[in-house]
Structure formats: C-alpha cells, structure tokens
User: What shape does this take?
Amino acid sequence: METAGYATLSRQSGLMNEIRVIANNIANAATTGYRQEGLVFSEFIKDGPNQPSLSMARAQVRNTSFAQGTLTQTNGKFDVAIEGDGFFKVETGAGERLTRAGSFTPNAQGDLVNMDGHLVMDVSGTPIFIPPDVQTIKIASDGTISGDGRLLGQVGVFTPVNPSGLIREGGVVFRADEGSEPTQEAKVMQGFLEGSNVNAIGQVARLVEIQRGYELGQSFLETEDQRIRSAVKALSR
Assistant: This one.
C-alpha cells in the first residue's frame, strides 16, 4: 500500500474512534453528573533509514469537559449538586473515586451511599452515618448535614491535585492518582441534581460531519484501490 493509503487508513481509524466517543456522549446526554468527552487528534511521523517519512493521524487521547451542567430541582432530601468546581468523593471496591453525580440515599446500615452503593465520604474521608430515626434533613451550602437539629456530618467537596490527570472509570466516576483535597470554593445545593454537560445538538452536528469525512475517506480508498488494480493489469500485459 502506498503512503496515501496508510495516511488515509490512520485518519479513518481516528474518525471511527471519535464516532464511538460521540455516540457515548449522546447516549449519556441525560445521565446525572456525566462529563462530555472529546478526542484529541495528533500527528504521528514514522521515519526510518533509507525510507521516506510517513505522516499519519492518531486519535487515542481523550479529554473531558468539566463545564457546569444544568442543575435540576428534585426536592430529594439527599439529592445534592455542586455549584462550581469540585467533586464528591465515594469509596468503591477499587478505592476512592470522584464524581459529580449527587443522587445519594442511606443504605440498610444507615451509611450514605450513591446509586451504585458506594459510600459517600465526608471532608475527612470517612463515611457519613444517617440515624434511622431522623425525620428532617438539612444540608447547608458547605455540605454540613443536620438531622432534627443535630449535626450528622459534612458532605465533602474535593478538587484533584492534578485536574488534568483525572482518569475516567465508568460513566460518572474518576480516579485521581495524585490525590485530592477538600475545597471551600464550591457551593452544595440540597434538593438539586446536576445533569450531563453534553451539548447534544453540537454532538449530533459533529457526528454528521465525521460521517461525511469518513465516507470521503472511504471513497478515496476505493478509488486508490481501483487505480492500483488498473496499473497492475496494465503492467502485466
């Protein structure tokens, strides 16, 4: 295969990867706390002794948008949303993880958990216990939880030490290998949930654009294949 064919195939591969990313974004446009993903294209140049250099496209690095999603009022007493930068911290079987999805509820043992059953951490990194006899729950803007006038704990809001180093695990949870620390800059809002920050219209438009680009590349490959076949036939005569 000639250089043009290799370059086009690398571009096709990258476009296919981006289609998968965008399709996942669109599928999660209504998922609480979901962060939109994108794909970063870069140039890969292959060079060797006595060989011409070959420039190809690579699209393997994903980036995540942490723009604020729309806050929707639910009036759920354990539903909380973050206004500003920061994440809730939950304890999973694989360790501590960060998330913007604040749909919480007490489990059978009285510990506050998210929808996946992971323990919600307070500012000190310990689980939050909700007594079963508590009737009225109030969550202040700093995350402080009061039950029937008694202080029960404080929902922690954390920022990663290295925001660019966050690694997505699953749909709405992230791993911060360099750790995270409590922040007082964000506001916790009781009775609200933060929706996905996916720009659905923009993503659909981009999907159409990519599909057209992919079709153009496919047409080029078919034309190039036909050209090579014709050249081979002409030389074999």
